[in-house]
Amino acid sequence: MRDPAVIRKLPDGQRVHMHDGPIDLIINACGTVQAIRAAHEAAARRFVSILDELCGELPLLRRRLTSASPEPSGPVARRMAAAVAPYCTHDFITPMAAVAGAVAEAILSEMTRAAELDRAYVNNGGDIALHLSRHQEYSLGMVERPDFPYLFGSVKISADSPVRGVATSGWRGRSFSLGIADAVTVLAAKAAAADAAATIIANAVDLPDHPAVLRVPANEIAPDSDLGAIPVTRDVGPLSVSDVELALQNGQQLAEKLLDRNLIHSASLCLRGRVRVVASSQNSHEFESAPRSLQHA
Amino acid sequence: MTEVFPPDTVRCDACPVLCYIKRGQAGACDRYANHDGQLVRVDPHILLDRAKSQGRPIVPFLERDSHWDGQLLAKRETFVTAIGAGTTYPDYKPAPFIVSSQVDGIDIVTVVTEGIFSYCGVKLKIDTDRHLGPERSLVRAQGEPVGHVTTAEYGSQMLSIGGVHHLTGGGKSEGRVTCQTLLDLCNGNEVALAVDDGAQITVAAGKPPIVNGQREERMRVGCGSATIGMFAKQWYGRVDEVVVVDDHITGVLSEHQAGKMLGVRETGIAIQGRRSTPGRYFQVALPGTGWGGTNISDPLTILKSFKPNLAWPGLRLLMVSTTGEQFAYYELDQALHPIEKELPDVLKDSVARVRENCEPALTTVLFMAGAGGSLRAGVTENPVRLTDSVKRSLTRVTAGGAPAYIWPGGGITFMVDVSQMPENAFGYVPTPAIVAPIEFTVKKCDYANLGGHMDSVRPIEEVVGENERQRQVAPSPANPWPLTPPTPGSHE
C-alpha cells in the first residue's frame, strides 16, 4: 500500500521534514513570516508529486547514461541527466547518481520562486541545495559517517561564493559506492552537480584488489540496483596508514581533474580520520577541520 | 522486460519506487526491510509499553505489535526510551524528547537523549575459576589492547574493557577496535578476547563464557574444601567418608575441620596431591574438563590405598565433584578395595543440593559511563542542579528503561546491566565514542525547580505515534517501571 508523503515541522518549530518513500528532506527558510510560509507551501506543493514523477521514468534513470541516451522528460530527471553527463564518456554512471541533489535543487527553486528569502536550504540526506541572498552565509558541519552526528570539520559558504550545492558520498551511505571513502564532501555551483561529483570522487577513493575490502555485486543486495552486477563496497577491514594515504591519493587525483574541468568548487576527502582537501588556492580556507574532542561526553 | 528475482525477495509497495528487497536487506528508504520473507518497518525509536490491565509484560522484547493502531496507548503506560532518540549534539540544546506523563495523578517529566560517551567502558564478570591471566594483564581484541584483568571476585574473573585511554588515548586502530568491542559487548554480541600471558576467551552478555575453547557450565558453590564445610552435617551419619574433587582444593570429610568437629571417625583414606591443611589437597590432578575441573574421569585415580590400620571393610565412601555434576558411591571390600555401588537414597538429596547450589556460569556486562556537562545541559540550563537532583534521588536515571546505579560522589557516573536493556540499544560515533541511551525521570515541579527546559516539554500523547520510526517493546520483567514517581532518598 502506498504510504502517503509526510510533511511536518520538526520539534524546533523552524525546520520542515518532508518524507516520501526513499526521499527525506529537511528544509529551512529564513525571511519574513509570510515569505517562510509561502516558501514552505511551494515546497510542499512540489514535493507531493516529485517521487511519482521520478518513478514514472525510473527504468531510464537507472540505465547507464551515454551520449546516445534519450533525454528524460521530467524536469528533475533532466537535472539528473545533465549533472552526470560530464562523466558519461569515462565512467559508468546513471542519472540516479544525482537524484538526491537534483530533488533538493528542484524544491529549493520552487521556494525561491515563491518568496523572497534571506537564505534557505533543502537538505536531502546530506545532499544540500542552498540559497543565499546578499551578505548571507551558511556554516555547515561535516560528518565522517552518515549514521552519527560527529563533526570532523565545517564549511563556511557566503553569498559571494559561487557555491550553492553541497553533497557527501561514502560507502556507508544510503547509496552504494564503488570506493572506500568514509565521506567525500563536494562543494559545487549546484546540488545535483555536487552529488554526481561526490559519487565519482568517492568511487575513486579506493584500493583496487585490496584484501581488506569486501565487495559484492550491487544486484546481489538490491536486485533492482542501477549498478547491476558492478561490485560495491560492503565492508572495509583494517588498513595500514600507507593504504589509507594511497586510497586518498587516488581520490585526490581525480578530484583535481574535476577541479580543473570546473565541475567542482572544492572537495574534502575523508578516510579513517585522515582528510585531504582539494581546492584552488584561494578557496582552500573554506574547509576547517574540527579538533577531535571529548567535550560532548 | 521481465526480470526474475529469487523467491525470498519481496517487492515493497510502500512507495512508487517499488523496491525489490532481498531477505535480510532494507529498501532504498532504509525504513522497510525483508525480514524472513516479510516486509517490515525497521530502525525504530523504542518505546516501552506497559499493559496496565495485565500488570506484567505480555509480549517478549522487540516482538512487533503489527496490529497496533495507536489507540491502545490511552489505556496503557508508555515510557519513551532514548534508544534511537538522537543526541543533543551539535545543533540544539534541549534533549531530543522531553516528555510529560501523568502517573497516579502526578505529573512526571522524562528527558530522553542519547549520550555520546568518551568516558565509558564495561566491566565484565566472567563466572569461572579458571585462570584468565595475571591481574593488570592487557586484554586484547584483534591484537589491540582494549582493557585489562582486574581484581578477581568470588567464583568470577573480572575484566575492565574500554575506558577513555583505550578509546582515544592510544593509536587510531586501538580506539577503533576498543569502540567496536564495547559496542559488541553492550549489544550482546559475542566477542573474542585474548589476555596477555593468559587465556583466550569468548564472551557475550548473559551467555556462558568459553575459556580456551571450553564452555563453562556451572559456577562452583565453593572449592572442594568449602563444599565439605557446607554440607558436612548433611553427610554425617549417612556415609563414612566424602571426597569432593576439585581442581583447586579437594576436600576430605574425615580429615577436614568440619568433619572433626562433628566427630567423624578417621577412615585411613590417602589422597594423591599436595596436602595444604588437614582435609584440603592441592593438585590432585591436572586441570581439565573432567571431575571438578580436573582431567580425571575415574575418581579412584586420585586415591592411594586405604591404610589398613584405620580403614574397615564395608566403609561407605562418596566421591562427588564440586559442581555435583559427577558422583560415585563405593563400599570397601574385605581387601579394603573400593567397589562401586548404587548411590543410596539417603545421599541423593545431598548430591542434588551440591548441584543445585552451583549456578549457571555466565558473562555479565555492566556498562559504565559518566554524563558530562553538555549532556546534562540538554536536560537543564543549570547542569549541576541535575547532578544534585540525581544524588538526592529526585531524578531517576535509566538507560533504555533499565535502572542505572549512580556512583556516589561528584558527577553522574552510572552503571547499567546491558542485558536488562532492549536489544541493540547502543551505537557509536567515530570519535570514537559510544552512544548510549539515557533517560532522566523527575516530577514536573522538581523539573521546573532544577531549571529544566520547560518550553520543550511535550505531552506523551503527542510524542507517541508522531512518526513511524517508533517501536513498542515490552519492558524487561526484571526492571522496575521507570515512570513510578521518584522517591527522594532511594535509588530503586
Which outline of chain B best applies? elongated
* Largest sheet strand order of chain A: 1-2-3-4-5-8-9-12-13
CATH third-level topology of chain A: T-fold
Number of strands of chain A: 14
Main sheet: strands, sense, barrel of chain A = 9 strands, antiparallel
Which ranges of chain B are low-confidence, i.e. pLDDT below 50, for 5 or more consecutive residues? Answer: 51-76
Structural account:
The complex is a heterodimer of chains A (297) and B (492). With 297 residues, chain A is an alpha+beta fold. In chain A, 31% of the residues lie in helices and 27% in strands. Chain A contains seven helices and 14 strands. In chain A, helix 1 packs antiparallel against helix 4 and helix 3 crosses helix 4. Chain B has 492 residues and is α+β, with helices and mostly antiparallel strands. Chain B has a domain of 133 residues. Chain B is elongated. The chains are: A alpha+beta (297), B alpha+beta (492).
List the helices and strands and how they pair.
The complex is a heterodimer of chains A (297) and B (492).
Chain A: E1 6-9, E2 16-20, E3 23-30, H1 33-55, H2 58-61, H3 75-84, H4 99-114, E4 119-124, E5 127-132, E6 137-143, E7 151-158, E8 165-169, E9 183-188, H5 191-204, E10 213-217, H6 218-221, E11 231-236, H7 241-260, E12 266-271, E13 274-279, E14 287-289
Antiparallel strand pairs in A: 1-2, 2-3, 3-4, 4-5, 5-8, 6-7, 7-14, 8-9, 9-12, 10-11, 12-13
Helix pairs in contact in A: 1-4, 3-4, 3-5, 4-5, 5-7
Chain B: E1 10-11, E2 20-21, E3 32-35, E4 38-41, E5 45-50, E6 77-80, E7 97-103, E8 106-117, E9 120-126, E10 138-141, E11 144-153, E12 156-162, H1 164-169, H2 172-186, E13 191-195, E14 200-203, E15 210-211, E16 214-215, H3 224-235, E17 241-245, E18 249-252, H4 257-262, E19 270-271, E20 274-275, E21 280-282, E22 303-304, E23 316-321, E24 327-332, E25 338-341, H5 345-356, E26 363-371, H6 373-377, H7 383-391, E27 395-399, E28 402-403, E29 405-406, E30 412-417, E31 427-429, E32 433-443, H8 444-449, E33 457-459, H9 460-463, E34 470-473
